[in-house]
Amino acid sequence: MKIRISILFHILITLLFVGCQKETSNPLYGSWKSVGYGKYLVLDSINYAFYDHTDISCLPAQKGDISLFDKRMHLQNDTLIITKGTGLYSYTRVKQLPELCFQKLSEDKRNDPEYNFEVFVNTIRNHYAYFELNKIEWDSLYTRTKRNVSTQTTAVELYMIFEELIVALNDNHGYVEPTDEVYQEAEKLDAHSRETDTVPEYGDFQIAQMVADVYLEENMTKDSGLVSWGRTCDNIGYIQLKAMWLFADLQLSKEEIEEKGYVDAYVDTFTKMNEGEYIKKERAGVAKVMDQVIHDLWDTDVIILDIRFNGGGQDAVALEVMKRFNNKKRLIATKKTRAGKGYTQPIPIYLEASSRPYLKPVYLLTSQQTGSAAEMATMATLELKHIKRIGSHTQGATSDALEKRLPNGWYFTTSNEVYLDARGKCYENIGLPVDYDLHYPDDRQTFFRDVANDLEGDQTKVFKGIEVLNAK
């Protein structure tokens, strides 16, 4: 009787792994299943390997040298705990990986639109955290959407179906990244379906720099394209953070940057790294900049911290920034993760203290474009009484993004975590409020244009807010 190659391979791997376990007797080695997140992890004396798992698929996700997990893994009773940024991730031991993890997909299967659709919706069904909050009738939505998918569905059509589903879910961290060819073709179709807009459009960094140029009467910025700082009038310090990522020194070559552009080269590099190591580098990068910023602005009477055009990045970066304004360790939030029909136990998130914090008045500027990790920075201010918020409520995209790949190689994400402030309130969709409301428009480009068309006027409104709040 012939034995299928996949089963034989499975048996050999298991025997080799058991042999390795006996040889090393390290309790960390073996196969593990995540609590939530849909992942399996295999550890041995040399390597780690992650697999993304759904009810119908198990795909290799990432592998590397186990040394990258040094000091970030430990056993707590029978549970493996891995730390990453602000998170603690739990894994329970399993005897072996599911058979799905050893099945090799044919080219046709990997690109089958129906199979990719089912993997996508299975991930959402099992991990999306806001069905109840957003009043989503999932079974009905799934059935309606499935009718549009067949074996004849093109890649562009499948991408647009995914996009429409994300919109229907109101998933603030839902995202699909197809191939460049598919994305460009979808953009062409979208452009044909709407009228040409002749008014100018601004990018986040572009409008941010225009604003910074108005505020910085004394520009102290050096060696940073992500943070601008200096003094404005009346000995007021001004700090503008354009993003909560891109701070890591990833040793990008000049050739890589010229070929792909800085951001694409940066993304290509960090996605190949162990995520914990990457976040560590992000934190170190922003710490170096913020140490210089606070040193330069230490003698100011007030600081304006502007994150109105900051769409987010890494929570660890946000907390490293806000640490400079905190004098003791504080609980600022908790987060829980969708797991099965419920949620994991809430994990506390703390803001660490600075040895030399800036405790004079600080005014945080926010808008509806302040999102994700920038909202973590905003949430921290709820526990810092010397910081007041001016502008408009934040975006309401507080969850982390669960990152996955489809069988066809497309990258996608969904919101699988619920963040609560220190008093247990969730700000998903509604955003974090301000103390002085400037009533910015919800629409991104309308807001950017309003600011760009009257930069001095917008600054005057901010100063008026400071005056009003200071008088209370």
UniProtKB/TrEMBL annotation:
Record bears the keyword Iron: no
Documented EC number(s): 3.4.-.-
Main enzyme class: hydrolase
UniProt signal peptide: none
Residues passing through the membrane, by range: none
The protein's name in its UniProt record: S41 family peptidase
GO molecular-function term, one example from the UniProt record: hydrolase activity
Keywords in alphabetical order: Hydrolase
All residue ranges annotated as the Tail specific protease domain in the record: 245-439
